[in-house]
Amino acid sequence: MHLPRTLAELRLSQFNEARIKHRSVKDELRENLRARLGRRESLFPGIVGYDDSVVPQIVNALLSKHNFILLGLRGQAKSRILRDLIGLLDEYVPAIEGCEINDNPYAPICKACRLMIEELGESIPITFVERGRRYVEKLATPDVTIADLIGDLDPIKAARGGHLLSDELTIHYGLLPRANRGVFAINELPDLASKVQVGLFNIMQEGDVQIKGYPIRMPLDVMLVFSANPEDYTARGKIITPLKDRIGSEISTHYPATVEEGSEITRQEAWLVRDGLRMTVPEFIIRAVEQIAFEARKDQRIDKRSGVSQRLPISVLENVVSNAERRKLVTGESEIGARVCDIYAALPAITGKLELEYEGEQRGANAIARELIRAAVGKIFEAYFEHIDCSEIVAWFNDGGSLRIGDTDSAELAVANFRHVSGLVEAAVQSGLCERSHSGLLAAVCELILEGLHSQKKIGRTEERGYTAAKQEQRGQSYESFSRSRKIN
Predict the structure, then answer these.
(1) Is 213 left (phi over 0), alpha (psi -120 to 50) or beta?
(2) Which of 129, 144, 363, 373 has the fewest CB atoms below 10 angstroms from its CB?
(3) Contact partners, residue 149, CB within 8 Å, separation at least 6
(4) pLDDT digits over 438-462, tens only?
(5) Is residue 419 part of a domain?
(6) Distances (CA, A) of 18 to 13, 22, 314
(7) Residue 188 lies in a domain
(8) Quick one: which of 400, 404, 410, 389 has its CA closest to 453?
(9) Which residue segment(s) compose the domain that 366 sits in?
(10) How far is Cα 284 from Cα 215, in angstroms, rounded to an integer?
(11) What does the alpha-carbon distance between residue 100 and residue 173 come to, in Å, rounded to a whole number?
């Protein structure tokens, strides 16, 4: 399609329609949103678990033409949602060529553009701005100044052009004016200094700004959106009350409500495709990884105000696959097969993402992470093996058996050792999660059973001897010391 290159051509094109000529960006977002809703299209592709909570509130805010803020703990897709607003903008819009603030050719607010129109008239050159260039994002930090957001006077411009410093032609525009006719997002709003937040007041309501004391009427056409963490209100800063009053809608985000939703997000975001290598990551491994985050979010030793980011299970799953890949390289197996031992190898992806309370600090992040893994695997084991009798396996260990499996043991070696445990392979096959012929998956299910029994304290596990009989104090019964132990390597 031929795009107009001058204002005269623009007036003869479809961009001269009355509804487009002076349409604000909020009207544009509203119109495109209504069209997408009418076509039953997804508004935020890849965002899971918000269809009945967050998304309807965002839709209402956009239909109301509100500036809004997303309020939620870390790792709740706030920034991603804001960036997805780009999809609700037109593919491109006309602007005066060379203008720093994407001025509307039909109603320029920039003095330089007005002077160009007076000089060139209908032959003034026109360019088209793509939707991706109409989204401007700024991470709020304490060192952000009014000049960064609004602008400042440029003495060099004044000297070169022979202008007074009070002339609009001497302005060096900040990020907010450069987002004119687009979406301007500020992440972590409470980190913005209070005096800088004050600078947003008039630009949000009346469109008036002052630069170095000179009043300048600049009716910007911009959609303002923000994100913030509730903890930031007291930990690092706050959103001043007059600014909160000018934000039309405050929308709270949340973590996934179910393990299924969380697993879908984790599977979607984690890097699982490794250079075309054959790979098996059982569903119960993915669910166990996701369950770790759910266990952490309800653990009293972990700071609830900080939250447990969705990045935790994503990073853990990537480490799980990497440890399985390492095992493949060491053993020469034909494919990557993830097992429970790989989850324990992913401890570094857990410990750094937990903000601990005093009790947790005393216990230590590494110990708590191990307990979270054990609890998570135990929950998944109960879900799959609720109606399967594992008493024969427990009896084998109570009879003095012990089993040590390393995370670098091949699937074939692991399965060979698992066959020594009475009833273990049979229980794995009975679950329907694997077949006898698939050693990689069979090894993973057997490890799930052993770790599940350990979480229920029916068998014990030590770093030195591996899986053994449950300790006397764990079972609450009095036993004689075991007279024999069969260790299988």
Answers:
(1) left
(2) 363
(3) 138, 174, 175, 176, 196, 199, 200
(4) 999 999 999 999 999 999 999 998 8
(5) yes
(6) 12, 7, 48
(7) yes
(8) 389
(9) 257-386
(10) 63
(11) 8
